[in-house]
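Teaching soon. Got one?

===
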Amino acid sequence: AEEGGAIISHHVSLMLYRSCKVLTHEIGHLFGIRHCIFYECLLSGCNHLSEFDFRPLHLCPVDLRKLQEATGFSVPARYEALLGLAEQWGEAWEGHADWLRRRLDYLQRQQAAAL
């Protein structure tokens, strides 16, 4: 990925990905969300790096609703904004970008079916 015309290396992309995971996990706690016991999600606890790397960057449906209740965001708008970032920040973000695309596709199909 490019940032200001420079290609973001794999190591920088991975460092940014891991940093965002830690920060967003801790921000979830600031909103009063405890470690997830329902799914393996961003708010799941972990004890070592390999476990941390296995955890996804996204929230499960339970914790997503908790955060949405606290902040009032639109889920599709949030996913679109996150996808824009994930597409810019290099190869460490490709799995998360794919997940966001699948979620957005699902939400669009659900909305179309409701019409």
